Amino acid sequence: MANSEHRKRFITFAIIYTCICAAVISVAVFFQYRAYTKNYNLAAARICALVQEKYPDVTGSSIAEILNDNVSEKYDDNGKEFMQKYGIDMESDSVIMENDKEMKKFITIDIVAVVFMSAGFLGYIFSQRRYYENQISQMTACLRRINEGSYMLKMDDSKEGAVSILKSELYKTAVMMREAAENAKADKIMLKDSLSDISHQLKTPLTSLSINLENLEDNPDMDEASKNRILRRAKHDVVNISHMVSAILKLSRLEADVVEFNEKETKLSDITESAADRVTALCDLKDISLKIKKDSDRNAVVYCDSYWQTEAVTNIVKNAVEHAAKNVAIGYYSYEMYDEIVVENDGRAISDEDKKNIFKRFYRGQDFAADSVGIGLSLAESIIRHDNGYVMVDDLFNEKKECEGTRFVVRYLR
């Protein structure tokens, strides 16, 4: 396509340039013909006037017959002999000397015109070649800088065509390489931070587990009650480690984009009810009342993977239960532009600092639970974001504008 455009532009220039050259040469030939005609007519007029003056018996029609009729061909040989007597060769010399001067002048003009027109055409070809050489040199220098790790490209705007497309693709490639390099650098930093966080998070339960096992090993005569207490602590540490590793693996799979989502239309009622069932035991343990709001829209649906969305909503509901005083309520609604799930509790207000960081990995707020690892909400936010949604957290106010809890809003855009 680009080569076709270049060829079309070159052919258009060649046609226009040829037409201009033809017009210039035509004008020169026209004026040359006019000069020749004028000189011949003047010479013929002088001869006719002289003949009539010297030979009154010769009529004008006789002279015209000699000039134009084929009958005059019988005088050609006599005319040639006459001219040769005066050194004029009928094959190479002009009878009218003025025409020789005109011929030399117009030949000079024609040669100069052809030279200039040829030089103009060659100049165009040379300028095009020079232009492409400069563009290729510029792109070569850009590629060299890219190979050296510099992605700051500065290329002059080029004309439309192959070079423009090539430079555009080169720029896109450089941008993608720069983004890839920056992403790789960011990924390395994130991996380093993640490994550091994971190491820090695992260090406490592993240390506790190691101490408990050492106590059992160093005290074989320990009473049964103490052994059971230490075993319960060890089991609790193992459960925490297992939960943390499971959550980290899930989050890592999401961030690595290796999860195969089975997306389909799913009722929000199915997601919220499944999430509520999963935290029933925790609610019973903490004596928390968990209810589904009566005004919820049972026809509300979202296009998602039901398993992963249930995982996300479960983490949000679990967080609400852990920080609730007595009650947790869940509602789901459908609107023109989006669908949403609302999770509310009657716990303490969340500080502004916690609101800004609550969805960050391994972040634990001021009132975090003892066994919290700070990864559940981060996992939930990643899952929801994958399905074109987002999650918000804010204080819950009553009619008197008094804070009486916390509200999480999961909103899925259509």
Please name the defining characteristics of this protein.
414 residues, Heat Shock Protein 90, alpha+beta, single chain, Helix Hairpins
- The outline comes out as rod-shaped
Kindly provide the name of the CATH class of the largest domain: Alpha Beta
**N to C succession of SSEs:** HHHHHHEHHEEHEEHHEE
Mean pLDDT: 77
Task: Give the distance, in angstroms, between the N- and C-terminal Cα atoms.
Answer: 39 Å
Compute the number of helices: 11
By CATH, the architecture of the largest domain is named: 2-Layer Sandwich
* Proportion of residues in β-strands: 5-15%
Number-wise, the strands total 7
Strand order of the largest sheet: 2-4-5-7-6
Roughly what percent helix? 55-70%
Overall number of structural domains: 3
CATH topology of the largest domain: Heat Shock Protein 90
Low-confidence stretches: none
Structural class based on helices, strands and sheet pairing = alpha+beta
The CATH superfamily of the largest domain is identified as: Histidine kinase-like ATPase, C-terminal domain
